[in-house]
Amino acid sequence: MSLTVQFYTMLSMVAFGLFIGATLDTYRRFLKTKPSFHWLTAIYDLLFWIIQGALLFYILFIVNKGEVRFYVFLAILCGFAAYQALLKKGYNYLLELVIRAIIGIYHFIKQLLTIILIKPIKFILKLFYSLCMMVITTLFTILLFILKMVWKLISWVLNVILTITRLNKITDKMIIRLKIKVKKIKGFLTKRGKK
What we know:
Blueprint: H1 3-31, H2 39-64, H3 70-165, H4 168-194
Helix pairs in contact: 1-2, 1-3
């Protein structure tokens, strides 16, 4: 391995140490692990470190064809220590700013969509419902009016026919008899109910 390759390896491993520090803080910020053991947290931790290891070997493969030397780990440790000493506070502050900005943008877009899309759609649907109910009520009223007119016409024609044929006297007698029978049935049922 040439000196140039070793130099690039050292620089990339120091940068990777800085990267590990930043990603570790980001991971902790989003996961907010509890002190007690939890299976899901253990799985997340394992996945996090597997991804970090895969990235490390990918970078090593690009820089020096995947050769692992002792100074590689020292360079990563130096980069991580430099991050902890110099960049941690600034990065965490910047991370919080970015998170707040993303949350603010999300709320802004949500309110904008509510004002531009959801409220007008609700208004249109309510208006459509009101119009439909108005049309249905109007049609129902017209239908009732037509049925009343038809019924009046039919009853008038029947009265004329009954008057001409003099069947109205028979029907009047039948109606009177029917009323008497209904009264008798009511009286019988009320006597039965009292017993």
